[in-house]
Model the fold of this input.
Amino acid sequence: MSVSSILPGATIGILGGGQLGRMTAMAARTLGYDVHVLDPDPWCAARGVVDRVVSARFDDADAAADLASHCNVVTLEIEQIATASLDAAARHAPVRPSSRLVGIIQDRALQKRWLTQHGFPVGPYEDVANVAELERAAERLGALVVKATRGGYDGRSQVRLAASDDAESAWASLTGKAETVRPAVAEQALDLESELSVMIARAPNGSTAVFPPALNYHERQVLAWSVIPAPLPETLVAQAIELARGIADAIELEGLLAVEMFLTAEGQLLVNELAPRPHNSFHETELACVTSQFEQLVRAICNLPLGETSVVRPAAIVNLFGDLWTDDAGPRFDAALAEPLTRLHLYGKRVARPGRKMGHISAYGDTAQDALDRARTAFAHLTNGAG
Done:
């Protein structure tokens, strides 16, 4: 059965009003759509660029239904939306991606089982729920990264464990008390060559478009910088793209899917996690690619022709965290913008806290390394000034 396109002039609903919702809304408005969002914070980042904010929790099914009843299609910018809310919204408008897809992804244990059952490569891991199980996992797998199955973002709700002797303190750090029972995934800590991600868009009509892989660098388990195109061998790039295509088709994606991957020191490519939304590592597509990830999301959920994803010029981003706002003067944005071929993106968040993403700097370059060097130089100017 054919699916009609949702043309400009219609209204898009976004579950979540953070920076990803804000940037998606800006792309949607450029294309001529109205935008409504639902977010627990009435002063969320997207507030200034949308037509309506429904202030409600992500598990408020009635509020999700209210949002959808005023929209022609609904999407999301954060996967921590209750599936009951997605189902309630779907009774009024198409929800893309579906609650079935989101339900698989928002539970890390279920996500890994799904990937394994469908033949996609993941690193060694075990499901754990208490200290004793964590100790046994550490004895079998060695050093671990332990993640709660639900919740957590930007390194939250996860902890590193060097040896089984540290299981009790690690579990207490993760759950609050050593005796707490909580589902978690204990992943073997891998010797990594690099981390990369692939973004794929898939429309309801089955058409797909894939962005070139991004090379990513994390500090304290949070993305610090990213660059497109990833300076990786062509065979590896092709393998990563093929993996992303296979996952998108198998999970019946409608919208965007970011596939985070590990490249091990032995040259093995493994799937780390999936994100059914725009992704921090593809912010530089606004500069690098013909079509940004945000416009691509709008095209995909509205069943429009997907945009060209080729790289026009390499670009990189460096994230800006609330730590930069520690003194009265604040970041030297003027100094950063003095660096040629750079752009500043601030998310409109009212309160800066350590570790909170407040914006990013993006930059062009003749090569991926040139772009990254320029973005990092501009970042250094934020605290040091241009002179």
Residues 29 and 35 are 7 Å apart (CA to CA). The chain has three domains: 11-95, 124-188, 192-384. The two ends are 62 Å apart (CA to CA). The chain has a mean pLDDT of 94.
